[in-house]
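Teaching note: in complex prediction, the entire set of molecules is handled at once rather than each chain in isolation. The prompt given to students was simply: 'Predict the structure of this complex.' The entities are:
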Amino acid sequence: MRDWRYWLAEQRGTLIAVAIFIAMFIIYISNHQAGLTANVVNTAANKGTLLALVAMAQALVVITAGIDLSVGTIFVLTNCVASYVITGNPFETAAGVALVLLVGLLCGAINGAIVIYGRLQPIVATIGSGAVFFGVALMLRPLPGGTVNETLADAMTGRIFGFMPASLLMLAAIVAVIWVPFRRSVIGRAAYAAGSSEAAAYMSGVPIRRGKFAAYVLAGLLAGIGGLFLTFFTYSGQASTSSASTYTLFSIAAVVLGGVSLYGGKGSAVGAIFGAFAFRTIGDLMFVFDLDALWQPLFQGVILLLAVSFGAIGLLQVRNRLEWFR
Amino acid sequence: MERITGRMPRFLRRADPAVATAFACIVLLLLIGSLYSSSFLSLDYLLLQLKVASFLGIIATGMMLVILLGQIDLSVPWVIGMGAMMACAAAAYGPLGTALAVPFGVLCGLALGLINGVGVAYLRIPSMIVTLATNAVAQGLMIVYTGGFAPRDTATDAMRWLATGALIPGVPNAVLVWALVGGAMVFVLTRTGFGRAVYGIGNSERAAYLSGMSTRRVTMIAFAVSGALAAFGGVLLAGYASKAAQAMGDAYLLPAIAAVVLGGTSILGGRGSYLGTVAGVILITLLQSILSVMQLPEAGRQIIYGAVIIAMLLLYGRAPASR
Amino acid sequence: MEEAIPLFQMTGVSKRYGGVRALEAADLAVEPGQIQAILGENGAGKSTLIKIMSGVVAPDAGQLMMHGQPVSFASPAAANKAGIACIFQELSLIPDLSVADNIVISDPPKRFGMIDRKAQRRVAEEALRRAGAEDIHPAALVADLPLSRRQMVEIAKALARNPRILILDEATSALTAADVTKVFSVLKRLRADGMALLFISHRMNEIAELADVCTVFRNGRNVATYAAGTRTDNDVVEMMIGREYSHVFPAKPLRGEAALPPVLECRQLSWTNRLRDISLSVGAGEVVGLGGLDGQGQRELLLALFGVLRGCTGKVLIDGKAVSISSPVTARSHAVGMALIPEDRKTEGLLLPMSVRENLSFSSLDRLSRWGIIDRAAEQIANDEMLQLLEIKTAGLDIPAGALSGGNQQKVVIAKWLMRNPRIILLNDPTRGIDVGTKQELYRLLRRLADRGASILFYSTDYDELIGCCDRVLVFYDGAIRRELAGEEMTEHALVASALNIPGGKATEVRV
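The expected output is the structure of the full assembly:
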């Protein structure tokens, strides 16, 4: 069968992201002082998972040809909420987790409603809603603080069977429970179709609005899970401007590295996950090469700039210059 | 005076409902403010507000140019920081450095803006991505720079004078500078071929290209100007605060975009007047001021910001319904 | 036996776009188990007819009936449900999804609420097989397929819905000859199965092979319906042309045999597979028409000359000297002096929200300004001159161009280029969607410009117009110039016949 070739073509972006990640990770591990120990892997997995969750959220919206500049603030807001409610007995803790996820879901629904039913451009709408989300976060946690059920937190950020990072299992579970059903549902296909060609999707009778709305809502949920995980990681909550803007920026970078087209319709959240891990690993390369940590942000910025410029190669194939102006 | 009143009718006729709404909101805010404090309507207070607004105004001017093209510049935060820090740093190199501090800071912003412009116009990368990337690069550069060299970060006298002095008694220099920059922008937008091209590209780059415009060059220059103006805003902010700080630009991205959009400039490009941006800038500044007079914490300020922006856009900034 | 109720019927259906009528009280009846061909010139209302049938646009007046019951379609999805599937000329496929995804897009098979990919694959394979396109892999991305394969996917997608009425709008135009044979046998089988097929094509041989019934449209009306094979090609062409209105065209200058000095020449101009070895020359004061069916490379030729297309081969000469035009900036420069009136005035010609003043001077800003600053007095003078020259009716120079009528908008587009005094004027279907009065003004203007020495290349989808305005017409077919008609040879009949690529030039013998 020639099936695998088509599968390859469809997953090209994702596979490139996987390849970049593996290459980077090998360089990283082979130069790491401690080498491939469970501890090193676990730390890398935890940091990568944080970004991967936010990047998945961004990918969902980008697939519909939108953009969510509020993912970072939803991430921070849910972190602040989580630092209050995830305590007490297992039942209370579970209720707390549910509440945090609900907050994320609600934020996503607000974005979706403004963009789809309010007909505002995603970029301004999410800048505005992001300010609101961040304001609420600031109200909750102007200063770092709060607690979290440490048993749960340690379980989620620790290792299972002594070598397997729990965070990766959680990530796999999220992909299985949220992403795969979305990808395979009519709604998910509508989101892709709307992002790829809204006119053709309309002609084919695709439920465009429902598809887009679902993408925004699930993006909120995923960013919320990210915020939850951040709380497990830090045992506290903080309304930090810098983590909100950093995670928004990095989520877009991860999505681009992960082969999700900013014009919509192309790519997958799995690609975004690997994009996130790759981006994190690139950032951490600095450490293993014993370079000053000061250079890390510059290094990441330059990599990002080069990665997006690489996409411009497609321009050379344009035969009709009017196609520049889409 | 005669001439101004003579031109009023046409001026009013062409006023966008959005601009009128923004000015109405300014009046409303002033009234609300005067309930809290009688000094709210005093000349001193208003001049102070204008002075605070001028920094945002200069930054929003560049942002507006880019938004008119239908693009966006998200590199503003660190270009502001870079402009401020580079200007201060130049002062460490003797009298020549001190003299050239301001132009040097602006030049650095221009260079970064040029990178944005090349990326958007020639490589046709979405502006959101290029400018985010250059923002990261600028941030990286500044972190390396301050971390590695512990540079001079105090503002020069010239910078302080530009931001806080008063050439005309009673009128802060920052306001004068904004007026000059704004006047120049109005002139460029309304009286030059470049300005027409900016509006044309924002409306339909296809049509502008087929009309024989060098659309790529115009786009690149607009981004360069945006970078230069953001850096200039940073230089002034450093003068105002007497020193440059790394994250000083973070608080200006959202207000700059909001000011432009609230002033009736379409985020899709091609429509908007500088008068609207002025209204937007004053509106945002007054809103901030009132929220602080009301002693609302930063949190409440953020929430009201976001809510006001979305509410106003829902009022008049919606895209047409499909079918 | 009582008279059978047709499967589908439309009566008195009208549709207007702005001031232009596309359909006027059109009637149509569709019967199961037969292939009905729809014929008509460009703009006769065929596209609007099928858009209404498939729910893309709503009619202004008239009634649609299925099995004698009134129906109305709010969206393409509703028409689908009622059993009408349409294969559009502009493809309705989603480029980033796979072939199988696209085939089942409107109603994917589900299992536990999720799309059942195995079932989807089966449905897609079955549909592709029925369409005779087994060579297309269901997992392939549509974006990676060439145009002819996409068209086959489009056919399979329509078949997968098991429609009772299948509409094919120029569905064969992008296909290879081998595909056409396959598709035809598929269509014949569907007819035997009792499906009703509406077949729209410009290729007479295809119609002759397939159709049971033919319906001719002209100016938005159904003018004739007849059993296939009862009329000759010539009769059909006559019916398509008709004589409902005639334009008043300005007199053409009488010229001797002496050739005009060529201003614009091109030799062996080619671009991808859309332009093949185009050689032509246009003299000073000459109006040369580009004829043929829509989409045979005429637009591409104009864009190529104007420097928009990349990778053209061949030569372009201005005044006998080879030039390289790589952008509209060069094309409009003094040395070349070219102007292009683009295809779509709303997105390519005008900046609709901007004022008439700004639009008029937009192409000439380099001439109207000094040191980049616009000389407003000079701008005013130039604008006034253009308003007068073209008699543009506007409430003022400061109102948005979008507020003008279609005809006046088009005048603004032309005026903005005339302001540069171009020597070579390329027009891309400039009279589409404008009223008759303005059309006549434009015809006079074109002739006046030519008399002053301009060289004009004029593409139009209206044959009447080409005959009335042009000194010569070059007929395009499949990216190449198929025929050149001049003087007495330029009849509507000859144009239609050579556009349809009917062999032999005998058509000129027959006059209306």
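Point out the following to students. Chain B touches chain A through 60 residues (CB under 8 Å). Residues 264 and 295 of chain B are 29 Å apart (CA to CA).
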